[in-house]
Design goal:
GMP Synthetase, Chain A, domain 3; 32% helix; 549 residues; Rossmann fold; 23% strand; seven-stranded mixed β-sheet; five-stranded mixed β-sheet; alpha/beta
């Protein structure tokens, strides 16, 4: 009997990022890639430019295993890097351009970047730290302007000139699917950023699972006839991995550059965008801008992640025509673990039950295993009320933090990835996040969910933004403190805020211990580099206020 070749002898059974590009190119060679008002070309040209970028980097001395960092807005260039760098066997480091300069310095040196592709807008950040950047890194300049900004930094090449002078790679090597494809850094509020990383296999599996979860008819779906525009930074967990899915589907893709609400809405209207994703802060900005313009947003599906989707925000979005729902994940999970896709289309005024369902973390996407466990890693009942830490497994979770074995061991304690989130699970498997483990407030012998209390505060018609933190209390251990941003015409009234929360306590929705004794009014809430509430900073600021009294 004739023997068959080894399964991977010709790369036939490997999962590689190049296959995602090949799928989209084969299906939609003439579909458009759009960058703002500046650039428009098709998938055939995208494929050619990806090949030219890989060849251009090779002409500068780039080799498989090198690390290529990118500092850019959401552009067609970033999409090209998503493919060219890992397809050439190199590692793509998506740099968080909203980090402090000291954190930026740490990530560039820790990642051992060999090349940095930098938008001219971020040159001042690099100039401020360049004398402390490890030597040997080559810079490629990215610019939308005909005459880029001058800099004292040594520029090896300009991006478009590099592509224009290179013959495109047309035959890509069959890599080991476990080859590292990407690295980026978590944006926690404590300590130095931690490096997570993902292989070709992991990113392809995440793409396929996301496709399976989002495919099909009805609301909350992403299909071949959609028009995609990310409103999540491409440096943040691969823009939730959805540019890979959009490319595999061969859909029209619209990249907005810097996020300016009026510009986003203009692109939505002009390019007929139908699918996006963002954090709640950006959605609120777009709704405010749309209201000012008198603009409807019908036909736009928007997935919300990065922070809890408040029911008041979901209701406002649905009222303007947005098919909005929450997703859940984290940097370490690549990121999507769950989606709270609606079970019916948004028609007419949404019911409270429908709004609530869309704001849950939702159901696990394919190949994701989730458990809610106690401190001994024992499963808690799926009864919608037993709260414990959410732990996860799937084929694409980061296996460790680079160079940090102690944190890696804690992340994977007991063989499951620990999310650090407190959750409950309904009998049907729907996950509801109660709070971050570090943010839950322990008062009067009870746990108070800061997320639930924030959602209640946002139901007040004069509250625009709200955060709840725990502050020390000698009698109750902790007590909840509310930090509130009011609408433009509102007058600060702490008693009115407390009375509003008390209504929910009187109705049994929350404990009476959840009524905040401290209410602070501010002009804005501090946020992390990816738009999450920076509660560590808020706790420090509140402690200063308490100490000054």
């Amino acid at each position: 009997m004739e023997s068959n070749p080894a399964p991977d002898a010709f790369g036939a059974n490997t999962l590689l990022i190049k296959q995602l590009l090949e799928a989209g190119l084969s299906r939609s060679p003439s579909e458009e890639i759009v960058y703002g008002d500046a650039v428009r070309f098709d998938y055939t040209e995208l494929n050619r430019r990806i090949g030219r970028l890989a060849a251009g980097l090779a002409s500068l001395g780039a080799r498989p295993g090198d690390t290529v960092a990118v500092m850019d807005w959401d552009t067609h260039r970033y999409l090209e890097c998503f493919f060219a760098v890992p397809m050439a066997g190199m590692v793509l480091h998506t740099v968080n351009v909203r980090l402090s300069v000291e954190q930026l310095l740490y990530t560039i040196n820790h990642a051992k970047d060999d090349f940095i592709l930098v938008n001219t807008e971020f040159l001042p950040m690099l100039e401020a730290i360049w004398d402390r950047v490890d030597p040997g890194k080559q810079l490629v300049l990215l610019s939308d302007a005909a005459s880029p900004r001058e800099t004292r930094l040594p520029i090896a090449a300009e991006y478009e000139a590099l592509l224009g002078g290179s013959n495109p790679v047309t035959a890509w090597s069959d890599l080991d699917e476990s080859t590292r494809a990407t690295t980026f850094y978590t944006t926690g509020t404590t300590g130095l950023p931690k490096a997570v990383y993902f292989s070709h296999r992991q990113l392809v599996l995440h793409t396929l699972a996301s496709r399976a979860a989002l495919a099909g008819p009805g609301a909350g779906r992403f299909n071949h006839d959609d028009v995609y525009m990310p409103v999540t930074p491409m440096f943040h967990v691969h823009a939730w991995g959805l540019p890979y899915l959009a490319t595999m589907l061969g859909v029209k893709q619209v990249y907005p550059g810097r996020y300016v609400p009026d510009r986003l809405l203009a692109l939505f209207e002009r390019e007929k965008v139908t699918f996006s994703h963002c954090v709640p802060t950006i959605l609120q900005m777009m709704l405010d801008s749309a209201a000012a313009r008198g603009q409807r947003l019908d036909g736009w599906t928007v997935v919300i992640g990065g922070a809890a989707l408040a029911q008041s925000l979901a209701k406002a979005a649905m009222g303007r025509g947005v098919d909005v729902f929450a997703g859940y994940g984290m940097s370490e999970t690549g990121p999507i673990l769950t989606l709270a896709q609606p079970r019916s289309a948004n028609s007419g005024a949404p019911t409270d039950e429908e709004v609530t369902a869309r704001c849950h973390a939702g159901w696990a996407i394919p190949f994701v295993q989730l458990r809610v466990v106690d401190e001994a890693m024992k499963d808690l009942p799926r009864n919608g009320s037993s709260a414990g830490e959410l732990v996860a497994r799937s084929p694409w979770l980061t296996q460790s933090y680079l160079g940090d074995p102690q944190a890696s061991q804690a992340l994977w304690r007991g063989g499951w990835l620990h999310t650090g989130d407190i959750a409950v699970m309904d009998p049907d498997g729907c996950v509801r996040i109660v709070d971050r483990l570090k943010d839950v407030i322990k008062t009067g012998g009870e746990w108070v969910s800061s997320l639930q209390l924030e959602d209640i505060l946002l139901k007040h018609p004069q509250v625009r933004e709200a955060a709840v933190i725990g502050i020390p209390d000698p009698r109750w251990s902790e007590r909840p403190a509310a930090i509130v941003v009011l609408t433009a015409d509102a007058v600060p009234d702490a008693d009115a805020i407390r009375a509003h929360v008390k209504q929910f306590a009187d109705a049994g929705a929350i404990s009476r211990f959840a009524i905040p004794q401290e209410v602070t009014f501010v002009d804005s809430l501090p946020k992390t580099s990816v738009g999450k509430l920076d509660k560590k900073l808020m706790r420090a600021q509140q402690a200063q206020i308490e100490g000054a009294v």
